[in-house]
């Protein structure tokens, strides 16, 4: 019977062919083709071997031929984890270079197993950090430890080996006896071939190294370190594995790392696994990580490592695999279970049962087969749809493996809800936790689509926005419902059209008995029955209005008769407000719910001056929330330590008070702006949480500003506002908040939204303040920096000069003043004004060192700019020295230095590439990519830039398939992040098109021409039509045209030769071909010269 992807719990990674050969031999059973699972080969390019070891289903993969290192390993692992979601045990098994020391008597054929040591998880990446400065080694890339269940199994196995010895040699012998063809490659070499040379004895030409031969001279033997005979049985060592993108061949560096970190071996793949796919690294020692070539031990080293891996799987607890593999077990879907929680769920104080609706939900959604179930609860806002959904979820959550409550009020709130649930999914089933929000959302939807994950309940609450391109907060709900034929989905909505998605039920107003139950659950005093009946008739069976009235009655202590009087008074006020409104809210013809809330709102406003104080101190905010809760205007969300407001209440507040009273809009803007931490966190969970928590609110506030609603902050002109209402300090605060929101957008790569906000700040500032007001100058600096990054260099220069002269005029020399001058210097570099740039940057550097010190963030940022300047001037030695100085200054892992480290690593990659040090450039670009992915997520512009650089290097290395995949991925990312309308004005996106054109020019000329043409359509808009880049690109397009013309001529010549040619003409044809090639080269040369 065919296995399924979710049956596999062990992933086994190999790097080279011999490692995979011995891995297959460790299988107790290798599955035949008809037992192999189906894999989506369009998404997963790996080639797998499937089988069983003990009771574990094992999938084996190796790296693509000729492609080694951290990045390749990470790609292979990502594909495997995506295809096999139940993987819990991951092993990287193969060979490595040993790290012998006085403490660790490591010999060839020994086994190294990664294990945590104080301060490290078991693997360190040693080719990044202070090793770049050729001084002391300081590792700055830390890896996660292996999973706990594997650490426990390792401890069990180590104790067992100490008590009774291991069976490694016997396992290898058994393998060889059954496979005689492996005797040559995998037998243990003679002991004489295990020789450890002194660290100061190096070979400059490793191809001619024969140090491990048995015929060494006496002189050579004097360079060998004498060691006692230890027998043939391999030893197992637990500790640190050192990983990098290049082989360790320098004994002096090897010994320095051993002394500093107590590492046991060196290899090239582990760092690509540990943080995203925590694994155990198992390595057989085949050489001593020095310059002495020794291939003779590779087969045996691979075999002993594989044998240890098999012994380890013997002691991995059986439940880790058998409970997942057992198809007959009806509880198989338990592995997809996640704990039930009410976090983020608007739970009511008391639910009054509505039997008809509850029975509809049970009939439609409870799991009774594996068919997909979609049910739509539709009706007026406040009619009780949400509380019906909440009660159904609370009553029946035990019947589902997972329950996901999602806020569907906007696309941002929906994504944020999905991401919050991602952290609750078992870690081995979710791949990209901590990545950007869109990647995590896709991964959760993938998880919901897994074949045996079929008993979940997903609730979309408040899906009330019509999907339209004109509304950036709307979305097509169908794209968030898994297409697989399983799972239960409940949608609450006011939109009647959504009933087409599945079964539906229109929620009606409640009857008198239910209405009375809702009122008395809030208002517990005895009152006149006739008055109660009169009130409930006026509230028209709307549960939210009834609950609001009950909350007011309980809090205020007034009678229902008095409340009815207030109701009649406020009803007239509501009617007058509606007549003045440009927008009719037609949910409630008699406006009972609006009137009810107006009574409560006026009562709240009468409670001292609390509203304006909520931004002054957290204590005032907490007190205000308590008061609003008492009137049922907000609900507390204990698990998220926040508050929620019913969508209809929010709509009412905005309609009656947000639109009518701009002061509330200003207050909302302040609250959100002051919630943005400065400086903003870089990388990690805090970075992701910040984006999730604030982005929906910031999007809403900025949308009001950017849609032209200037009344939210200031009048159309200064004269639009009575002089008595102008509050200069308030205006300055609000503009400062808008500036912060612009910085937020720029930080997260939303550059066009940031630009619009900066422009609005300038517009408002110039209406109220002097031209050299600090707020205006700061914003001018930020806008100039943004323009410069977008290569709008003339606009940037204008802004930055304005900032510089303005700061100089008011006599301010602060951190931001010097930062503005540094930004101007950076812009001069991009403009090719190198002399002006150097003069400015050196002046700034000197002042920053005097004021802040040589290792201050601002100083190092200017040094990074100088490094880039010298690179552009082809002074690579100077540029490299400065980049290393920046890295040295980034010793402390604080947030700003993290950004500087990225800039310095990028500079080093550029320098190495220009010097032809391709492999070193690749290492730098890979490090930059990994750091940026961790800091910003995979879909940030900076991360995509590094991905494109790696693709460019791979193209130069001849890795054309890998290069194409990476450049295409970067280009698609730009389109997603920027939007199709902005891709043609983004330099890096245009560079990706150019790179694809160069890649395709060799074999796919038509596609190359299309890419060149797309790049040339946009590049003049950014760089100018006469810029060097545009000239070069036109030359590339013309050269491609000449080559195509030559190919056509050559093709016609070949056709004629096939008809008329004879064997005697072969030499003449060859000479003619060479002549044509010479003519082609000359034509291209002449064209370029012209």
TrEMBL record:
Concerning InterPro entries, the annotation shows:
NLR-like, Nucleoside_phosphorylase_d, Nucleoside_phosphorylase_sf, P-loop_NTPase, TPR-like_helical_dom_sf, TPR_rpt
Which SMART domains does the record match to this protein?
A: TPR
Task: Spell out the Pfam families in the cross-references.
Answer: PNP_UDP_1, TPR_10, TPR_12
For whether the record's keyword set contains Hydrolase, the answer is no
In this chain the TPR repeats are located at 818-851, 902-935
What does the record give under GO molecular function? catalytic activity
Q: Where is this region: Disordered?
A: 1048-1090
* Bilayer-crossing regions: none
According to its UniProt entry, the protein's GO biological process terms are: nucleoside metabolic process
The record's listing under PROSITE patterns reads:
TPR
Report which residue ranges the record marks as coiled coil. none
Domain (Nucleoside phosphorylase) ranges: 34-297
Composition bias, kind Basic and acidic residues: at what positions?
1070-1090
Q: Which keywords does this chain's UniProt record carry? A: TPR repeat
Q: What is this protein called?
A: Nucleoside phosphorylase domain-containing protein
Q: Which organism is it from?
A: Gomphillus americanus
